[in-house]
Amino acid sequence: MKKIDKQLNNVIPGGAHTYSRGYDQFSYNAPGILKKGKGCYVYDNQNKKYLDYGMGLRAVILGYANKKVNNSAIKQINNGNNLTRPSNIELELANKIKKNFSYIDMVKFAKNSSNAVTGATKLARAYNNRKIILRCLDHPFFSFDDWFIGSTSLERGIPKEIRNLTKTFKFNDIESFKSLLKKYKNQISCVVLEASSFCCPDIKGIKIQNPVQAFKYGNPNKKSSYNYIPKQDYRKPHFLREVQQLCKKNNIVFIIDETITGFRWHFKGACYRYKISPDLVIFGKAIANGFSLAVLAGKKKIMSLGSIDTLNKERVFLLSSTHGAEMSSLGAASKTLDLLQNGKEIKKIWSHGVKIINGINKISKNNGLIDNIFLFGLPCSPYIATNIKNKNSPKLKTLLQEELIKHKILMPWISISSSHGNREAKYVLNAFRKILPKIKKLIKKDINKIKFKNIVKPVFRKFN
Ligand SMILES: Cc1ncc(COP(=O)(O)O)c(C=O)c1O
Question: pTM of the predicted model, to two decimals?
Fold first, then answer.
């Protein structure tokens, strides 16, 4: 462990305030601590500049330290930041969000999406008086709370009774969903999933060279069932809409978590792309360009259970926190939404994604590495595979990270902001042109013979 990692881990369990930021997620040569960020670059304490694809765990959609967003936040700081009654910006932003989404009647602010998703499950349980939560297994994270973490391998500290109340189904596999409906008939309170997954549907006008291997992450034969195309044929099977219909039929609350998909998929969220209307929706991360804000929103009949103006109804104690509506974050969100509204910034993200997916996959193919290193998924949020014999290889992931960091690229995953332009795409492709022949040689010898100082590990593992 490096000195800085020791210092961090000595005083902070996990060494950071998100496990994804921990030293076990990065190669040894990664900067251990960062000083600042500007645009799509971050700087370490020695002022070394890195092209960043982490983007504050996907929270920074317009680039770090965006002047307009910062000024909007500063205006609210100067207004007091946290007042004794609701603030003007609170009402203004709630209305702005409501106006943008046809299925949103009411809005509740929080600091973390984890709390907002948990709030949604609580509302659901209160609404239909049932206990079981179905959550999608292919989506890596919904909340730090027990109902979710208890359904992962990290169950320590969570009573079995709670763990037993969350069941999992697979994305784009309607049968796995239907079998749970049958098994837990009239017991399922809500379904929690994202509106997208690793797979890349056909999108008119966008040509992506997705390698064949990428289909491993989504059955190619079922490709049409999560497509979105402008003129969707509503007679065709469509996983998300089928889930929505089944929820309606069975009085199950349909919850879509747009923490990642909002707003890179579309200004109106991924739900708009896929033409679905959840009962409850969660936004977070990018909504305030890195300022801390999460949103739980949705239909009045469910959201209003948390109200105080309905007479003689038993109340639900919904999200209620001192800092939930901190004005600086709300100011930042309001400006971020204004800047995203015309779609230009989001278009830049898609365009950068297309360039790096096609470019990196071509370079990988030319080097005979397309089975090992390739990008897949949607251009607005591509994933990077580091496989050996069709299986994710932590050693290959570490090796690629090490080499990218030597080229001053921090790419633990790929989160694109609208600050990532042509220059950055060219820079990344150039780095891959230099790196991949070297990796090819090392893999050919035997990757197991390489002595790594630190191998990147999965966040969800039972033991250290
Ligand atoms: C889809 C999704 N939902 C919820 C969360 C939790 O968000 P937060 O870290 O704001 O609690 C995350 C975090 O990565 C996420 O990716």
Answer: 0.94
